[in-house]
TrEMBL record:
InterPro entries: DHS-like_NAD/FAD-binding_dom, Sirtuin_cat_small_dom_sf, Ssirtuin_cat_dom. Keywords: Metal-binding, NAD, Transferase, Zinc. PROSITE patterns: SIRTUIN (PS50305). Zn(2+) binds at residues 129, 133, 164, 167. GO terms for molecular function: metal ion binding; transferase activity. This is NAD-dependent protein deacetylase, SIR2 family. Residues 1-264 form the Deacetylase sirtuin-type domain.
Length: 264
């Protein structure tokens, strides 16, 4: 298979991952059955999937009722994930880096070295002031656990609504949802990646579609264009097309990542 040959020939491997990878791993924001199981109150309201909650204005107690359950489920689970473990095995001991729009921490939780992971869209593992009154951000696990301890599934609400340690105002997770986003915690990893990458890199892009193409899809295409010996493998079930100008340096794999990992 050409993918395996390209991996063996690569000086470096840059894994560039979008939402499709985590969906393949079981964290699908459109999963209606899982939504009904976790959020019975919101399901009774008529909501059917997690993606419907992104940006939806809710009263603070209901807002943190949803987000504390969601983040606990998707970010702080301790169990290993076979899809991410399979990807780690595929890369093996090759020199590699990760850039991902996913904010679920699954790479670091499944054997990838944390200082070789850049998450430009943020991480559910941190939170920030909504104003923001400071550039500082904080680990979110303590406030998520405190909120969960007061969660009432019948109402979908919590009573322990977190607030900013500095100004006492509203807070939210340290993820890119608007101009208030504070990316400072993730900037050093982006610099490390830029210093690390060189010609001959193989970009292994997985599950990056067109919902936020400016985060993963377009930048890696531009990267490969600027490096004459770089290659791009795009693994995507629905949007596997590659730019014609990259010619034989780009490979389209129209498949679920699970199928690719299962191939010898």
């Amino acid at each position: 298979m050409t993918l395996r040959r390209w991996l063996d020939e690569a000086d470096q491997v840059l894994i560039a991952a979008g939402a499709g990878l985590s969906a393949a791993a079981g964290y699908d924001y459109s999963d209606a059955a899982r939504f009904a199981e976790l959020f019975p109150f919101l399901h009774a309201w008529g909501l059917r999937a997690r993606y419907q909650l992104i940006g939806l204005p809710l009263p603070p107690r209901l807002l943190w009722g949803y987000w504390s359950v969601h983040v606990d489920d998707i970010r702080f689970g301790a169990r290993p994930n076979p899809v991410y473990e399979g990807l780690r095995d595929l890369v093996g001991d090759r020199d590699h880096f990760v850039v991902t729009s996913n904010v679920d921490g699954l790479f670091a939780r499944n054997g990838f070295v944390e200082d070789r992971i850049w998450t430009p869209q943020g991480d559910y593992g941190r939170y920030q002031c909504e104003t923001p009154c400071t550039r500082e951000t904080w680990p979110s696990r303590p406030v998520v656990e405190a909120a969960l301890a007061t969660y009432d599934a019948a109402t979908g609400e919590v009573t322990a609504v977190p607030s900013c340690p500095r100004c006492g105002g509203a807070v939210f997770l340290n993820v890119h949802k608007g101009p208030e986003y504070v990316p400072d915690h993730y900037v050093p990893a982006g610099r490390r990646m830029r210093d690390w990458v060189r010609d001959g890199v193989l970009v292994l892009e997985i599950g990056a579609g067109y919902s936020t193409p400016g985060v993963i899809r377009s930048p890696v295409e531009s990267l490969v264009r600027t490096l004459p010996s770089a290659r791009l493998v795009r693994i995507n079930r629905d949007h596997a097309d590659v730019p014609a100008d990259l010619g034989e340096r780009a490979m389209s794999v129209r498949a679920d990542v699970l199928e690719v990992l299962a191939r010898p």
